[in-house]
Amino acid sequence: MIDDSVRAFASGAPKVKIMGVEVKSVYLEQPLQEKLKELNAEFEKLSDKRMRIKNEIEAYDAQVEFAKGFARASATTAPAEVTKRKIEPQELRDMAAFVRETIKEATAEKLKLQASERELLRKIAVVQSQMNELSRQRSTVSKQILVTLVSEQAMKVKCSVTYLVPAASWEPAYDVRYLTEVNQVELVYYGVVAQRTGEDWNNVELELSTATPTTSVSMPDFQPTVVYPRGASVVGETYPQPSPQTPYRLRKEVSKIMEENKEESEGQQEAMKHDFLAVGGALTAGVTQHLTSVSFKHPKPETIPCDGRPHKSVITIERFATKIEYVTTPALSEFVYLRASLTNTSSYPILPGEMSTYVGSSFIGKAIMKAVSPNENFQLYFGNDKDLKVERKVVQMQEEGPTMFRSSRKLTKSFRITLQNFKAQDVTVTVIDSIPVSWTEMVKVTMVDCKPKVGEQDEMGKLTWVVKLAARGKEEINFKYDIEHPQSQILNLENWSAPRLKQQMEQMKK
């Protein structure tokens, strides 16, 4: 508990006053020793059980060895017995059956016991780990809160306290499913809570707030290709700093949402209690809008042990209308991806978090959901489609020196992108590629040829075609560009991020 965060509230009569709030730390050895005693008893109980199992395994091993010894002895003495007396075939069959059944039954029982022993070893390891953790702790610290109340007369007073605790956190997680039959995307919004506050939360009212949130199936992001003279002054690449909203980062403090909630009207608090929704058999959280945040109150009490492990529960379920399209960046990936374009039509933000994607009932893979505000457009990827193929080849790369009519050097590059559709229906594919970008007049980049004509080209050199592919059809895109530069210069050809290129261009303009 953070001592300075303690707030006391008294209600019941207007003349009662809170004169003071004091927090004391109490060091308790007894609860720790009692817990260690319980764990030690459990450890001994499991160890004794394992010893009994080991003894039974040894007994079955002895039984197998006896049967094998009997078989070896019978094989040695049987010929001599045959010469002395007549041995019936049934007698030999009975002896063989005895050996076979004995070994079979003993081996089967031994395998069962070994499986039980493995399970016991796992339980023993858990108990041992808990004992080691407690042994490292010298004492258990408990907090006492003393609230001093003063009133002019005897009365019943309801007193409550609020406080903040460190080492408690929550983060969002999602199941995202493309429902092909209705052309919608279903988003299941989970709250994953973990806490190491020093005490278990048993049957607590859980409210999650967005006020202070502390292997991919997606297509690679486009990066412009930049050409510039070697030795030129260039800006460095900038990388985004970890955000407080980054998933799976353990928050060190709890937000001030409790203080904000005290300022909310009783009417808003009551309105939240009935705003529950049952969707697909799941009882979802009530949603309350605050001035700058949203909180989700779980419809039933939750129990969160003080073990630091994640505990997952449904917050809400939403469905969004979507536009589905196929996209590809063949210079970066050899696949054609299925992309959904959506709008967050809910009244609350979608926070960053881990996302599991599905098409119907088929699991596609894992990805990271980015932050999406209400009414904001966003895109989701549902993996690549194996029935669509794309291939990008360098058809020509030729460098020429100065000529009678040109003093500069020229590099010519041409590419061919081949698209194939193995589906039984027509599809439309958006193809993204690029040509180099130059920010200096000494280096010129010219598109020489492009078939079919590029649909869109931006200042970052990004090229976009929208290609209609007939069922089991095939299409090609061919484009060629020239790079001219002074003979004395050696060029660098690199892939930059769009922000870095924009910053470089702004710097050159200055």
Mean pLDDT: 81
The portion of residues assigned to helices is 25-40%
Classification by helices and strands = alpha+beta
Distance N terminus to C terminus? 54 Å
What is the number of independent domains?
4
What would you say this structure looks like, in words?
With 510 residues, the protein is α+β, with helices and mostly antiparallel strands. It has 4 domains: 3-29 and 139-162, no CATH class; 30-135; 168-214 and 250-323 and 339-376, no CATH class; 388-509, Immunoglobulin-like (Sandwich). Helix content is 25%, strand content 40%. The chain contains 5 helices and 28 strands. The protein has helices at residues 30-84, 89-135, 257-263, 266-273, 498-509; strands at 7-11, 17-28, 140-150, 158-162, 168-179, 184-195, 201-204, 207-209, 225-229, 277-279, 282-284, 286-289, 294-297, 302-304, 311-321, 323-328, 337-343, 353-359, 362-369, 377-384, 388-400, 409-421, 427-434, 444-451, 456-457, 462-469, 474-485, 491-495. Strands 20-17-16-23-26-25 form a 6-stranded mixed β-sheet, with no helix packed on it. Strands 15-6-5-18-19 form a 5-stranded mixed β-sheet, with no helix packed on it. Strands 21-22-27-24 form a 4-stranded antiparallel β-sheet, with no helix packed on it. Mean pLDDT is 81; it is low at 241-281.
